[in-house]
Design the sequence.
């Protein structure tokens, strides 16, 4: 009996020791970092997927000399593969290409390391906001949440990780400055917050959410034992930076025009659909099922019951946050964080993809902070509640981890990614079109034709499917059918500029090499170059056609402009030398 009591005392002491260790800030950050590294190590065997091909794999400029200086000019949009101004992201891709070439392993290592750094920053933020033991939950939950895997596994989506990391770092610097405003450290803190905010903004536009988040942090500052006036001072420093960024982004570096997808012409329908999307986001944050890179957005009106339910839930969150703002202020800050961070992609202003899992990378922090502080509040009420919640949270984290590991395998390559999308929704025309791209790439042209036709039978206006159908017909040497299909595609003109230039080039090639109509081919090659001035093949063939017609001056002009863009291209130099000899011979005669 005495021995049993002694053993129970030892076990109790050991449990208390473990609990004490779990409350040590540095130990918490170590655990969350280790979890992030281990869980995402599965993705190290993955290849390039989705936008990686446009930004990295098929980007001929990213490894050229002088690429760095293009980040700060209008040429940025021609060489980066991006449609909006995100020079920090492009700079990182350039560095990775410099060190690793086009080997996906190096890119995945960097992506995992940045996600790990963000996890550490989120854990530290939770500690600074006095979450105690539950700050560990916040960090681990952020490290393993399946919804965030899209941003980590899709290298082309690393802007979400970078903007979030720098935004959280900026907040940490602001808090550090507010707590030590008159120390030597304060100079580094305020400078660090400014630099981090600039890096966050030029990684992704959604980092502008920092300003309203800090406004609410200033309002709730006394509850976190943070001097309000120094938060306000930090805001006074950061707001001009935000204004300067908005001027650069929307007045100077406006980017290329990518067709947005308006949910509706009616504002009431847009608001109802946006409310439903936010509601589904909240649901997937709790129970992440049917993870997808291509959500088929259901457009609803204000009279739909789903909108009414979602509106009630959103209102309920805000009301509860207001009621308990003094007792659990972090819950209110977390809820506000979620809505402020999701606002830039809420579709009030139409965006290209109305709904995407990666959009939740930054908003998820607010959600996890709110849930963490709610768990801490309930656990403090009784030991029974504390044990029950601890067990439930452990099971939930195990479930999330399993979903994340499974999701990483979906991102192995483009085929596995889009095959998963098609399993989720057998009527997903976009997934069929993307799989047709893979089939064409692997030389399976009959399969690509079948997939493209199936996609067009569901959505006759899907330009990507029409492009792949045209490509498969062309590669099967069914030139008449291919030309007709390309012409139908070019009449609609609804593709991404990159794909439109490709369609014009393929059309020009058929007119040039098969139909033997040089005049129409010249027009088509010119259209391809007008959309993409860096389309090297179009420039070479256009110059050749001008030469064959005897228009040496036009050929020289085309090739000289191309050589300025591709100064290391030996073929262009050879062509120019040849036409310049012809010009000299004509002058002598």
Sequence:
């Amino acid at each position: 009996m005495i021995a049993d009591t002694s053993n129970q005392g030892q076990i109790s002491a050991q449990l208390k020791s473990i609990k004490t260790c779990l409350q040590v800030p540095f130990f918490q950050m170590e655990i969350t970092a280790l979890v992030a590294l281990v869980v995402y190590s599965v993705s190290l065997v993955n290849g390039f997927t989705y936008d990686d091909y446009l930004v990295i794999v098929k980007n001929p400029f990213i490894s050229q000399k002088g690429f760095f200086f293009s980040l700060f000019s209008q040429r940025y949009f021609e060489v980066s593969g991006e449609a909006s101004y995100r020079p920090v992201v492009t700079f990182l891709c350039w560095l990775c290409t410099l060190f690793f070439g086009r080997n996906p392993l190096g890119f995945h290592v960097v992506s995992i390391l940045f996600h790990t750094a963000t996890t550490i920053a989120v854990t530290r933020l939770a500690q600074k906001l006095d979450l105690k033991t539950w700050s560990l939950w916040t960090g681990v939950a952020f490290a393993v949440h399946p919804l965030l895997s899209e941003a980590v596994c899709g290298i082309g989506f690393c802007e979400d990780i970078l903007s979030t990391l720098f935004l959280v770092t900026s907040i940490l610097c602001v808090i550090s400055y507010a707590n030590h405003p008159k120390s030597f450290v304060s100079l580094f803190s305020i400078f660090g917050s400014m630099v981090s905010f600039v890096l966050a903004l030029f990684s992704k536009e959604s980092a502008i959410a920092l300003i309203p988040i800090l406004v609410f942090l200033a309002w709730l500052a006394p509850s976190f034992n943070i001097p309000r006036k120094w938060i306000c001072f930090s805001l006074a420093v950061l707001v001009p930076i935000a204004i300067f960024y908005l001027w650069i982004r929307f007045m100077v570096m406006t980017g290329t025009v990518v067709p947005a997808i308006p949910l509706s012409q009616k504002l009431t329908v847009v608001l109802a659909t946006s409310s439903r999307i936010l509601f589904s986001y909240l649901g997937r944050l709790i129970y992440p099922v049917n993870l997808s890179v291509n959500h088929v957005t259901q457009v609803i009106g204000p009279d739909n019951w789903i909108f009414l339910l979602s509106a009630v839930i959103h209102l309920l969150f805000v009301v509860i946050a207001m009621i308990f703002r003094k007792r659990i202020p972090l819950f209110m800050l977390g809820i506000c964080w979620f809505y402020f961070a999701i606002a830039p992609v809420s579709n009030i202003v139409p965006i290209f993809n109305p709904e995407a899992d990666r959009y939740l990378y930054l908003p998820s922090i607010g959600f996890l902070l709110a849930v963490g502080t709610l768990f801490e509040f309930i656990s403090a009420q009784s030991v029974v509640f504390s044990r029950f919640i601890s067990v439930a949270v452990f099971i939930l984290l195990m479930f999330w981890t399993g979903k994340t590991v499974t999701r990483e395998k979906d991102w192995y390559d483009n085929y596995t990614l889009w095959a998963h999308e098609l399993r989720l929704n057998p009527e997903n025309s976009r997934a069929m079109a993307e799989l047709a791209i893979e089939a064409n790439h692997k030389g399976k042209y009959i399969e690509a034709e079948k997939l493209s036709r199936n996609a067009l039978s569901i959505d006759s206006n899907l330009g990507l499917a029409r492009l792949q159908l045209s490509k498969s017909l062309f590669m099967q040497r069914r030139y008449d059918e291919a030309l007709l299909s390309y012409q139908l595609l070019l009449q609609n003109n609804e593709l991404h500029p990159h794909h439109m230039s490709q369609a014009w080039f393929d059309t020009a090639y058929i007119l040039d090499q098969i139909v033997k109509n040089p005049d129409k081919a010249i027009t088509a090659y010119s259209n391809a170059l007008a959309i993409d001035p860096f389309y090297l093949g179009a420039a070479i063939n256009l110059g050749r056609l001008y030469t064959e017609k005897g228009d040496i001056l036009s050929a020289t002009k085309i090739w000289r402009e191309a050589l300025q863009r591709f100064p290391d291209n030996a073929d262009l130099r050879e062509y120019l030398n040849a036409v310049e000899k012809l010009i000299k011979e004509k002058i002598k005669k």
Notes: The domain at 416-588 is CATH 1.25.40.10 (Serine Threonine Protein Phosphatase 5, Tetratricopeptide repeat).
